[in-house]
Every structure is written in C-alpha cells, then in structure tokens.
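Hey, I was hoping to borrow your eyes for a little while. I've been staring at a protein lately and its backbone has me curious. You're getting the sequence in one-letter code plus the fold written as tokens. Would you mind checking whether the tokens look sensible for this chain? Here's the protein in full, and shout if anything looks odd to you:
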Amino acid sequence: MAGKVMHAVQYNSYGRGAAGLKHVEVPVPTPKTDEVLLKLEAASINPIDWKIQNGMLRPLLPPKFPFIPTTDVGGEVVEVGSNVKSFKAGDKVVAMLGTRNGGGLAEYAVAKESMTVTRPTEVSAAEGAGLLVAGLTALQALVNPAGVKLDGTGPRKNILVTAASGGVGHYAVQLAKLGNTHVTATCGARNFDFVKSLGADEVLDYKTPEGAALKSPSGQKYDAVVHCTTGIPWSTFEPNLSASAKVIDLTPGAGAMWTFAVKKLTFSKKQLVPFLYTPNKENLELLVRLVKEGKLKTVIDSKHPLSKAEDAWSRSIDGHATGKIFVEP
C-alpha cells in the first residue's frame, strides 16, 4: 500500500467539537513488524474520544497534532508485518488501535497483533467494534471489583447499573445477567422497554424522585454499582448499599477521588472504586464469543458514513445515544 492515500478525519487543535473535525487525504499507514494493516469497515465512537479532543488529558493526549481519533475498529486484514503470526490478508478482525495512536476515523489503520482478534462471520464489523472500550469496561468492572461470575455460579448479588441504555451500560446489564444477579438499572423513560429487553429486573426513571434517589422498587440493597454517568453524589448511593458494597465509578471526578480516599482512610466497608479498563485480548475474545453465541448483543444507536463523521461525533457529545454509535468508511 506504500504511496497510496486515503480519506481520513482529523483535528488540528483542542476544542471545537464536531466543528473541529477536518476531512483530509493522508498516506495509508505502513504496518510495523508486529502490526497488521486493516481496511476498516466500522469504527465505534466513545466519549473518551471527544473528551481527549476537549483537552481532558492534555498534555498527554493526543501526543501530537494533527490527530486522527477513535480506537475501536472492525475490518479486514490487507497486509501484515514481518513478525505477525496469527493473521493473514483477508482475515476479518476487530482491533483496538491504542489511545495514543488513534486512527479509526479513516479508510485504513494499523493495529498491534496483540490487540487484534478474529471476528467470526456471525459478528458484524460494527458489533465487534462496539465491544472494545465499552464492552471491556463493563466486563472488567463486573468481574473484578463487583465479583460477578459470568458462568452463573457464586453468591447472588444485587447490581445497580446507572445510565443503562448507553454504550457501557447496555453491555453491563447483559453481562451482569449472565451471572447470579438481580439487576436494577436507571435510564430515561423513553428507554424503559429497551433496558428491560436487555434483561434488567427493575428499571428506574432517573428523572423521577424515586429514580433520582436510586431506590430499588423491591427494596434491594445493592452489593455493587456500575456507575456509568456523572453527577450523583456518594450521599445518594450510601443509603441504598449493602454493608460491604462497592460503587464502581467509571468516570471519577475530583469529588469521587476524595470519597475514595476518605473511605480508604476510615476503613469503611462501603467503598467507592475509581475504575479504568485494561486492554486485554483474552477478555475481548470472550466478548466476541458471547456475541457469536447470542448471549450478548451490541445495540446500534446509529451508523454514519465517514464523509459525515462529524454527525456521529455530535451524536456522542449529545449524550443520549441508545447503545453504540458507528462510523463506516
């Protein structure tokens, strides 16, 4: 592919949201010895993508401008590096490009072999691409801090999932129900039936007094909370928690970090756990297998052509997607 150019979408500075995205022609990247070159079929947008653009992780990310954003992709291998053993041209895969590198809003991208997995024919490019940041976050939050066993064994746990109709939340509800759990979920009224269809035992409208207070309709005390949104103080969670509960905060701010420190210092049994997923190939292979077997689904909020990537960007920033948002070259 040396010397060929491709259509890509990049930004040249911090800020400006969708208006800051620029359509450009750039060289097709060349895979290093441990990388594969992918012809992309779908890229999933995550909130972290536009938060990086807003400067949330400045000066660490992006490492330089211009920057082609997004990391979660599905596509076809077209070229492999000299040390790649697991893949060949023509293989259908999903891959995580790495937050520092990005590259997903383009026709082609390079991915490390170590974070690329085979995509079976039963799993579409979009269904696979949605699993990376969002699916790994939901899986790891439930299995590690929350202690849910996905094979259904272990003691029964009462789980609360906030913002359950969003990218991470809709996976968290489904994965939690593979375990021995009772799941209460919060969402807006328009998504009640949707979240019920994912398997939630109880659904709360976060705009009602009961929903805002996070009170289980059946009086459950939560053993773990997968907290996928912001703006809920510890004082709201605390009376609804069991004696040794954990609130797993996926977007911890300064207040959450303070609560985390205080709970640790006072040896409280009720803990707030700031959480960040870890890229893990085995976890990703598990998620792909669950989709193949029909035990997990990626719900597609919307698909947008690469030529209108800014529409997908705006849709994500708006914060009311049901499921996942995709860009397709």
Notes: The first strand starts at residue 5 and ends at 11. Residues 5-130+298-328 form a domain with the Quinone Oxidoreductase; Chain A, domain 1 fold (CATH 3.90.180.10). The two ends are 17 Å apart (CA to CA). The chain has a mean pLDDT of 95.
